[in-house]
Known about the structure:
- The protein is mainly beta and about 190 residues long.
- Helix content is about 0%, strand content about 55%.
- The chain has strands at about 1-5, 10-15, 20-30, 35-45, 50-55, 60, 65-75, 80-85, 90-95, 110-115, 120-125, 130-135, 150-155, 160-165, 170-175, 180-185.
- The protein has a six-stranded antiparallel β-sheet with strand order 1-6-2-3-4-5, with no helix packed on it. It has a five-stranded antiparallel β-sheet with strand order 9-8-7-10-11, with no helix packed on it.
- It is found in: Cytoplasm.
Amino acid sequence: MASTSDIRNGLCIKYNHDIYKIIEFLHVKPGKGPAFVRTKLKSLTTGKVLDNTFSAGHKIEDVRVETHTYQYLYAEGDQFHFMNNETFEQITLNKSILDAPDLLKEGTNVMVQINTETDLPLSVDMPASIILEVTYAEPGVKGNTATNATKSATVETGATVNVPLFINEGDKIKIDTASGSYMERVKE
């Protein structure tokens, strides 16, 4: 059993007969009244996100998890196949477990959290950013770097990302996997 002082991002807990992962949290100490912790929880079975408030000192039941590095192999419909980098064992996960499945490129290493009691995968943590090649974008025009105007571009995984006007087909761009937004152009 853990308490609200142990809450951190990525902690997996049992709550309302389900397993949730804490996405965000904020300790609040109002001037009047007791302290509390405001959290955003993501269900690891359904993928739904809910807001919840725990009073300070509230006991929460945490789930013991192990984290392993897996390599993304391929997708088959809504099923995504991964391979453990140490044991070469393969697992298949549903699309709903993944945070940004449209940004996954074959060969990408991800961190998979596995429940130690049931040996079932709970969640997949993507790298903070990923570098992908732009496969389609409207042509850029010289001098379009002064404003913050954006256009849609399609990357090699099929995802659509808003990029600055100077990005062209064939450019490699760095994308933030948490928000799915453009970070910078990568020159090699």
